[in-house]
Amino acid sequence: MKRRVLGRLVASLAAVWALGVGGMAQAADEAPDVMVQRLSSEVLDTLRADKSIKAGDIDKIIVLVDRTIMPNVNFRRMTAAAVGPGWRQASPEQQKRLQDEFKTLLVRTYAGALAQVSDQSIHVKPLRASPEDKDVLVRTEVRGRGDPVQLDYRLEKTPGQGAGWKIYNLNVLGAWLVETYRSQFAQEINARGVDGLIDTLSARNKSNAAKG
To answer: What stretches in the chain show pLDDT beneath 50?
Structure first.
């Protein structure tokens, strides 16, 4: 049970759930493993220091995610990959709604786990990549009480404005987040179309909000 709770916690920290230093621009030449260590430390430090976040204040959690995590996530790519072929069928308005609802789902699904943060730390393993690589895997462990929890990140190097490394998928205890949701979303799209998936995500988010 503890491993499952912690697994949900680290998933939220990276995906959304989330993982730059509060609103500060990331250096374009920052190495991907250095970036992951920086983001993880920033989020964990904030969680430990803010009693309302530890108590599960969803509004403050959303602010933390938007300010610290989302600038360093290619969430459009993450959502498109999770939706699968249905993404290409969706209109720009539907794509925006899918991104918004998926983000809310991830934040609210794992919000309760944030209160479990205490003495955990992030250990980033040596990066196996060449300087010219544009797509890398950063492997980490979340260490605390009990066995370490595997948490791996897929990142891509983005050019142009806002250049730098962006997270687009993560692996918690052997399960990739995007692939896990893709199978669920595909079933919904096959049964009810893109609008059906949006409606399902919206209903789930409203239910989660009602539960506090």
So the answer is: 1-2, 5-7, 9-25
Structural domain count, the chain: 1
**DSSP secondary structure of 30-51:** --HHHHHHHHHHHHHHHHHH-H
On whether the pTM is more than 0.85, the answer is no
Distances (CA, A) of 182 to 61, 78, 160: 25, 10, 29
CATH number, residue 154: 3.10.450.710
Number of neighbouring beta carbons within 10 Å of residue 71: 18
Domain that holds residue 25: 2-210
Q: How many CA atoms lie within 13 A of 154 on its CB side?
A: 16
b/e burial code for range 22-35 (CB count within 10 A of at least 16 → b): eeeebeeeeebbeb
pLDDT digits (tens, 9 = 90+) for 151-173: 899 999 987 666 789 999 988 87
